[in-house]
Design goal:
CATH architecture of the largest domain: 3-Layer(aba) Sandwich
Radius of gyration: 29 Å
Shape: elongated
Number of domains: 2
CATH topology of the largest domain: Pyruvate Kinase, Chain: A, domain 1
Strand order of the largest sheet: 3-2-1-4-5
Helix content: 55-70%
CATH class of the largest domain: Alpha Beta
Distance between the termini: 38 Å
Structural class: alpha/beta
Number of helices: 6
Largest sheet: 5 strands, mixed
Number of strands: 5
Length: 295
């Protein structure tokens, strides 16, 4: 049977653990908010970018903005996982989604070049037989996303020039709410033909006819660079927000378990304390009766 002292120590430990979980929950909520703002801030940026593509497509509809100069059918996979633990099935879900999507597209992951993002996803890839070609840590805040995007872009350029990689796909978890997310795939390169066709057919909102004075190829190259940046930056922000949303759900579950455990321990503590007090009273009564009997 547990002693009062041991129960007291357990109650303190569980209470301290509850404080840690509560702090992690607050940090996750704060992180979600900053990544939400980062995604929202891209809306106008992306809108301006779409208008630039729309102008070029109106003047030359056959333009597809396909990066040329590389011959090959090797795939480059950019897979977003989590940097920290305690986020439930976050990594397992995106890996399962990526496997099914690659199987549907006829992509052999053993022949593709894979860039894994997030230290926690590495241990989940080994059991399913996937070995990343390269690995990057994820940034700890919004301020670090831009530098990581630049590293990924350099890796893409290296794979294109040295390994003849032509097709690039991004797998990440898209943030939906403070407790939900869903796995997504984006065709980074070549650019999505359907999306470009939609832009070419979109009605120009202003009565002024669009035009540009910059040399066409230079403008197209600049737009592609911005397209890569926006797509990758959004993937980083969405994935990091989703990671914290998953952690929030895990912490909520942990909070409930801790509350139940604490309630159970407190009940046992009071029962044990009452039993101890009763035993002490019985000892006093027995001693008094013994003394009275002797007299």
């Amino acid at each position: 049977m547990q002693t009062i002292e041991s129960l007291r120590k357990q109650i303190k430990s569980v209470t301290d653990l509850g404080s840690v979980v509560k702090t992690m929950k607050i940090l996750a909520a704060v992180s979600i908010r900053q990544y939400e703002r980062a995604v929202t801030s891209l809306d106008q940026y992306r809108r301006t970018l779409e208008m630039g593509f729309q102008i070029l497509l109106r003047s030359k509809p056959e333009e597809r903005f396909r990066l040329r100069g590389v011959k090959g059918e090797t795939y480059g996979i950019i897979l977003f996982g989590s940097e920290q633990g305690m986020c439930g099935q976050f990594n397992e879900q995106i890996i399962s989604f990526a496997q099914k999507d690659m199987e549907h597209k006829g992509i052999d992951p053993n022949k593709a070049r894979i860039l894994a993002l997030g230290s926690r996803i590495l241990s989940r890839l080994e059991p399913v037989g996937i070995t990343p070609t390269e690995f990057f840590n994820l940034p700890g805040s919004v301020a670090g996303i831009t530098a990581k995007v630049q590293e990924v872009v350099l890796t893409i350029e290296k794979w294109r020039s040295q390994n003849k990689v032509e097709y690039f796909l991004i797998y990440f978890n898209e943030y939906l709410s403070s407790s939900t997310y869903r796995s997504q795939v984006i065709q980074l390169l070549p650019m999505d033909i359907e999306w470009l066709n939609q832009l070419s057919r979109r009605k120009w909102e202003s009565r002024s006819l669009p035009m540009f004075t910059m040399e066409r190829n230079q403008l197209a190259s600049a737009l592609i660079r911005h397209y890569l940046f926006v797509s990758l930056y959004r993937s980083f922000a969405e994935s990091l927000a989703s990671e914290n949303a998953s952690r929030m759900v895990s912490m909520q579950g942990a909070e409930k378990n801790i509350a139940d455990r604490l309630s159970d321990l407190v009940t046992k503590y009071h029962q044990q304390r009452q039993t101890s007090i009763t035993e002490e009273l019985m000892d006093i009564v027995s001693g008094f009766e013994a003394l009275t009997g002797e007299k």
